[in-house]
Amino acid sequence: MPASRFTQTGNYRVRYQQDQTIFATYAEQLSLVVLLLALLLLPLLISKTLLRDVNMIMIYAVAVIGLNVTTGYTGLINIGQAAFMAVGAYATALAATKLNLPFFLAIPLGGLAGAVVGTFVGLPSLRLKYLYLAVATLAFQIIFEWTVGHSPLLAQGGAIILPPVEVFGIKATFLNHNKVWYYIILPVLVVMGLLWRNILRSKHGRSFIAVRDNDRAAAAMGINPGVTKLTAFLVGSFFAGIAGGLFAYFQKAVVIEDYGLHTSVQLLAMAIVGGLGSVPGSFLGPLFIVALDRGMGGLSNFMSERQIFPPGVDAATALRPLAFGLSIMLFLIYEPRGLANWWRLSRMYFKKWPYKF
Asked: Does residue 334 carry a pLDDT above 80?
């Protein structure tokens, strides 16, 4: 007897077409609609400061999706994702200031610039693997920062101020900046998430996973590992370029310090904590890291005001890096599949309820 389309207590997929569906049941479709409605109403329910953090989480999520393409799904270690974001940010800034393009054209142009540079940087992946490839992407991160710092066109790493965004003829400076960009970033995040989910269902997505698991076996099955790796860098860098363009406009300026090595490490930590090779993990990781950072910042201020530690002992400022490093270490040891595994177990519980595992 066929299973209900509204709810399922097991896996009833018997055809490839069923296995490729994004939403298996009507309940999953309904939950997505409810989630989107809640997200649309969210700016009306939270403070301005918290809304800014939510915007940052969504921008980071776009970049982490791209990092998951290269590292999570294709197995190519990338420690230069922030540099690809910077490529998109500077390309967006130049398109907006030099070419006078509107933001809805400048940001995609930044994504294309990131894709072109990412494909070029991915060329070493044809010969290098694992730690050696990680060092190559790290070298690109350092080289790009040095190049920007010595380029007059890019203000030698200084601030490039972007023009204000106009929404229906009204400049965003006269509106609530955080709310305006929330309703711009949210649709972009949804579109990018659905785009990557559909790429996963295609032959390219299956090629990424095959190369990650065993590139020699993938080659024996007719997959070109070199083309697949370059495609992974192209797609992942495109996502990073889009995130960089959004970040540039949201911050109203482009400064190279926002795209340093620490940002690349932070993005990699988000991917690890959220769960490498997982679409939900690309959203859960940024949420966890940003919440952890804000929580440790508040705790540091509380400890400083109450003078909990003796004078001369600045332990409060060490809480952020301590919590950051400790969280990565604990997840790698006790939950290497990240928060996405917790999400999977929660879904399985409701699928099998009221039966036990």
From this structure: yes
